[in-house]
Amino acid sequence: MIRVTYFIVCLLLGITLVSCIRDEALNAEADILTCTVSGDILKRDPIIENNKVVLMVTADADLTHQAPEFTLTPGATISPASGTERDFTTPQSYTVTSEDGNWKKEYQVTYIIAGISSEYHFENVKDYKSSLLKYVYNIFYENDSDGKWVMDWASGNTGFALTGAGTEDPASFPTSSYAEGKVGKCVKLETKSTGDFGSKLGMPIAAGNLFMGTFSLVNALTDPLKATMFGVPFEHIPTYLKGYYKYKAGEVYKDENGNIVKDKKDTVLKKQIGENLVKEALQEVLEDVIYEPFGKIGITQIQGSGVMIPLDYNCAEGNDHIKAVYKDLNMEFSDIILCQDENIYNEEMQVWENKKQEVFKGQWLICDLGRELSAQVSLFPRTVFQRLIRTDTIKTGNEVFDKHFTVRSDDGEKVFHILTPHMIEYILSAAEISGGKLYMSFLKEGKLHIAVESDCDFFEAGKGSIDADRLREKFTTQIRWFTDMIDELRLTDTLYR
Asked: If we measure between CA atoms, which residue out of 326, 488, 469, 484 comes closest to residue 423?
């Protein structure tokens, strides 16, 4: 009985295995996977995309006698056969048929000798349309001087299409054509939401991008860093990059989880301007420049400055931190925001609440004059209240100056070694063009502090399009306001002990 049962089980298992083998479906894919050519003529690896193969070859390659060889998806066939010699002075077509015979794909194989251009205008645009999912995105391409196609620019639009967030309007994709360029068309790169699809994969946004190379759709979802394959061979060594661009920060700033971060701004533009324009402007005036776009002067230095800020503060924020040398004098500068930061208990809600009040916003300069000074002097704007009542201030004898500034010093006589008639007139003139309220403090050890309450960032681009030359000139003019002040002080012989 046992033997009969064992025999039946084996028989059934054998029938099942035979059935499985017999029912296995033939491969329905019809793709070219790799391409090889004989000789050392390739400038880079073959570019294999959905329906085309691009082979960039050296100028001495004989295109009339080429026999590329292909590897295909298992079981597929190709016509003409792999290794067939053909004339590739014009692109040649190949048909790949799947193993099951139900699917065919046409490939165009192109040999390119022409070098890559060094000038791009992005006027050549074609549309990729999906009839199934109803979306359209732009593909930028380049032609040679004879109008012959040379290459397509790559972008992440192919991957973005998988999210379902794209529409039949190409502008719905991160990379699209834009009619209002500097001259003619341009490329618009815009960060887009990937919707529910991207959020579930931990990729809530997609940035606009355009590059030479290829984009691998296979890797886009599994390993995004491997999706982009940058670069094409170039016969020359570039010396500079020149072009036009506009930048606009997003209306809101979101973190990696897609949550809106209140009161936080995009810092990309500031970083770019800082690295490319501000530092260049500084180096026209200063030496040994160290520039930190997001650094600041420390609050300890400010608290020990003797600058008479009217309201109390206990915290400092800032940016555009500069350390440099001006005519052998060490100086330090930054934008500064001084705040009163305190925790207040809300009796009604029975919770502690943080309250931050801004008391100063502007620029702060520290200069080491290298010598001890005759006296310690501070001056700051007189308020309307101070003008109406008698206050403890040193009178200089200059009616206009005494009306606008309160002066304090540890030596009522030597104060005039610093505030000479010429220096008083210069300070009045400098205050008028400063664009804000002027504070100054002369410390006996030889430190000068200058603060301008301007209520703005010093090296800001402003609104509208960016003119690099004008911005550079503007930044140079701004920093010279401070260096001119230092120059005037150096001419005042009575300033020092």
From this structure: 488
Per-residue pLDDT of the chain (497 residues; tens, 9 = 90+): 444 444 433 444 444 444 444 456 778 889 999 999 998 898 888 888 888 998 988 888 999 999 999 999 999 999 999 999 999 999 999 999 999 999 999 999 999 886 667 788 899 999 999 877 789 999 999 887 777 787 889 898 988 888 888 999 999 999 999 998 888 999 999 989 888 887 777 778 888 999 888 777 666 666 767 777 787 767 677 777 788 877 777 767 766 666 776 656 555 555 566 566 787 888 888 999 998 888 899 999 999 999 989 888 999 999 889 999 999 999 999 999 999 988 887 777 777 777 888 999 999 999 999 888 888 999 999 874 454 445 678 999 999 999 999 999 998 888 998 899 999 999 999 998 887 899 999 999 999 999 999 888 777 665 545 566 777 788 888 888 888 888 888 877 777 76
Q: 11 Cβ partners below 8 Å, 6+ apart?
A: none
Structure tokens given for 185 = 């068309």
State the span(s) of the chain assigned CATH 2.60.40.2340: 32-230
Structure tokens that stand for 197 in this block: 């699809």
Residues 87, 63 contacting (CB under 8 angstroms):
yes
Global model pTM greater than 0.85: no
Q: How far is CA 290 from the centre of its chain?
A: 20
Q: What CATH architecture applies to the domain 32-230?
A: Sandwich (2.60)
In Å, what is the CA distance from 186 to each residue of 23, 45, 294? 54, 29, 31
